[in-house]
């Protein structure tokens, strides 16, 4: 069971980074390329396989008399901001505003610019940039950073599911859409 949990924890960042759930993954979008369709299909399969593995792990834990910590109900999903329900967008925005209103924890000798709890995250990122960017720790560090940010939103301000910013819901405007002078 530890192996299955380990595999699931390895796949969780990949699954949680997906912008939409399985039903929407199967629906082709307008002007979608074959590569985009293929990627959506692979993402849907990965999600379904991961959830099947999770379900099997939960059942094995129950049969062993253990209470599973990670279930479908306890998973945290990230969605693209525009795909989030209106109430979820408002809750997330309110939580960010809440962090902005809380006093900072960064000592003045580290940064005199941090004025709020939200600023603490900015200072941390700025100070770590020379060590994290252009290194092998780039992706794991940023996953940890977002995790800590979401935990802070949840514990300090009541919500924590931040939006997935990696995949835009709408494609960027093409250069041909711009008016010519």
Characteristics:
single chain; 181 residues; mainly alpha; 2 domains; 6 helices; 0% strand; disordered N terminus; disordered C terminus; Di-copper_centre_dom_sf; metal ion binding; signal; oxidoreductase activity; Tyrosinase_Cu-bd
TL;DR?
The protein is mainly alpha-helical. It is 56% helix and 0% strand.
Explain the overall architecture.
With 181 residues, this protein is an all-alpha fold. It folds into two domains: 1-75, no CATH class; 81-166, no CATH class. It contains six helices and no strands. Helix 1 runs antiparallel to helix 3 and helix 4 (86-101) packs across helix 6 (138-157). Mean pLDDT is 78; it is low at 1-26 and 175-181. Pfam families: Tyrosinase (PF00264). Residues 133-150 form the Tyrosinase copper-binding domain.
Average predicted local confidence, pLDDT: 78
Give the terminus-to-terminus CA distance.
63 Å
Provide the helix percentage: 55-70%
Spans with pLDDT under 50 lasting ≥5 residues? Answer: 1-26, 175-181
Task: Report Rg.
Answer: 20 Å
Morphology: globular
């Amino acid at each position: 069971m530890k192996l299955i949990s380990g595999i699931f924890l390895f796949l969780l960042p990949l699954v949680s980074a997906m912008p939409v759930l399985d039903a929407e993954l199967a629906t082709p979008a307008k002007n979608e390329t074959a590569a985009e369709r293929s990627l959506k299909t692979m993402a849907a399969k990965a999600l379904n396989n991961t959830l099947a593995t999770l379900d099997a792990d939960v059942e094995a834990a129950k049969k062993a008399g253990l209470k599973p910590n990670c279930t479908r109900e306890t998973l945290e999903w990230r969605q693209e901001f525009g795909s989030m329900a209106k109430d979820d967008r408002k809750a997330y925005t309110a939580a960010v505003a809440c962090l902005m209103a809380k006093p900072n924890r960064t000592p003045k000798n580290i940064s005199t610019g941090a004025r709020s709890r939200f600023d603490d995250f900015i200072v941390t990122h700025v100070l770590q940039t020379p060590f994290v960017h252009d290194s092998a720790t780039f992706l794991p560090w940023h996953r940890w950073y977002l995790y800590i940010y979401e935990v802070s939103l949840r514990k300090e301000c009541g919500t924590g599911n931040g939006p997935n910013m990696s995949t835009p819901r709408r494609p960027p405007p093409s250069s041909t859409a711009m008016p010519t002078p």
